[in-house]
């Protein structure tokens, strides 16, 4: 029996992420509560030109433009009217649970990420249906035609098997013909699809990464414990893919073709300060934008108050790390 426990412990430790050296801590420059989001639950950010846009996972019929001129940001709703969602190949069990959950919380589509190309098209990922909605600068929105091979390959690799753990973020290149999608957890993973005439498909393979297992929460977290590895958003900057890894309270730079980690930065020191903590056993950050001067990180607090009583969604501005985002370890 003791051997069994020892073996189980060894397997757990083997599946946990162990950092060889401390990661550099990022520094908060400003904090911005967001008002005017009907459904709250800020779950994605995108910089389109000079404007920040966001989505709520409770609102199916609108996205939000953010007025960032004052310390408290105002969200202005922009109606999108999505057409009927196509069948992505998710099994009936997951789709039926999504449908049932929509009556309780709202948001059948469960929008979890937003990104933009250089032409101003906005792309929004639906976790509930593993689908991507394109919203052009003018004209009606439409769902991308994505090959069913994407979901099939992802599920064969151990992803998209759990309800409410499907796609949590996306990023697109400026030309608008390559897209990365982040599977949230159990397993978490990264996929790449490319536009081929009218259909988005795998170019050889869709899955760049699929990994399960546990990792330790940062030591700043009260009663830190092993939790599931996860991704909660993506950002593409300077030819590199940046992943928001909320349970580890870090941002990692990855190779966009292999998903290999090149360097990570922590934001635990700042967001786990006493007045900024939420009464949750895991990270809540779900929105990321990287630019030359720093990072925007937004929280989906599900209307839950943090320690100082603030209940509005928050977006923080972090300074770029020492040496910039391209710095080597």
TrEMBL record:
Source organism of this protein record = Pseudomonas kribbensis
Q: Which keywords has UniProt assigned to this entry?
A: Isomerase, Signal
Show which residues constitute the signal peptide.
1-20
Quote one Gene Ontology molecular function term.
isomerase activity
Name by which UniProt lists this protein = DNA topoisomerase IV
Please tell me whether the keyword Ligase is annotated for this protein.
Answer: no
What range(s) does the Phytase-like domain occupy? Answer: 40-186
